[in-house]
Amino acid sequence: MRAQFVLSEIGVGLRRNLTMTFAVVVSVALSLALFGGSLLMSDQVNAMKGYWYDKVNISIFLCNKSDAESDPNCAKGAVTEDQKSQIKTDLEKMPVVDTVTYESQDEAYKHYKEQFGDSPLASSLTPDQMQESYRVKLTDPEKYQVIATAFDGRDGVQSVQDQKGTLDNLFGLLEGMNWAARAVMALMLAVALMLIVNTVRVSAFSRRRETGIMRLVGASGFYIQAPFIMEAAVAGLIGGAVACGFLVVARYFIIDHGLALSEKLNLINFIGWDAVLTKLPLILATSLLMPALAAFFALRKYLKV
């Protein structure tokens, strides 16, 4: 009987404050969708880091004849065969080095034409103006400084470049976007909490006569509070379910179908459905507990029970 009464009061409360309940559902849905989206964005950035950092190469560019005339690092002239051989030998001895690949001037010219063939500069370049280089793959991409210290400024070496620096700029941008989404999420959560508190207070005020009678006949504080807390929890849970729907639909249409980014952007290692599905229980639990706790603390002061 008591359970039936509590459930009937939940339905009455939701119908009485339909507009505010709808506002709570929408704000909770949007804030938790942003919350889940920010978690998935973090997973995506980490997946991309693991994928791309594993492919990072360090390029050791060697001096050519034109560099000897214009670059202070090549003041001693173009790299010699002995210097090239010694550089390769020293690289292969280093424990942080996984593989070493030599790229000749002809190969560098070919790769340049493939990537920048439409550039006006491409027509004026010749293979002998390109730089020979060693492409070095490390066992740990974070150990770039070991290679830079050993070879930067060495005879025959024009420069040592790390591709990881370029990737760090990209990942820094993605992280910045993720933090922006979290800031918006925090604002939406604050709005949702204020709406929940106001909705509960309006509901309690509209039923102050019933709660007064219940207090006079000796009803416990929890029994009086339970319908209001559960109203907030139900509204929040609906919002959480909507947020989960947003994430599933977004993953389906943006990555798999519709925009089909997984097919158009083959170079990006997109997170799978397992990453999305593992976030849904967390979102539902948050959508249930957050409104319930907000209502509980609001009612303690308002009803004074």
UniProtKB/TrEMBL annotation:
InterPro entries, per the entry: ABC3_permease_C (IPR003838), FtsX (IPR004513), FtsX_actino (IPR047929), FtsX_ECD (IPR040690)
Transmembrane segments: 21-41, 179-200, 221-254, 280-299
Location of the FtsX extracellular domain: 56-160
Membrane topology category: Multi-pass membrane protein
Domain ABC3 transporter permease C-terminal: 183-301
Protein keywords: Cell cycle, Cell division, Cell membrane, Membrane, Transmembrane, Transmembrane helix
Subcellular location: Cell membrane
Assembly mode: Forms a membrane-associated complex with FtsE.
Family, per entry: Belongs to the ABC-4 integral membrane protein family. FtsX subfamily.
Role noted for this protein: Part of the ABC transporter FtsEX involved in cellular division.
NCBIfam families: FtsX_actino
Protein name: Cell division protein FtsX
Species of provenance: Streptomyces prasinosporus
Record gene name: ftsX
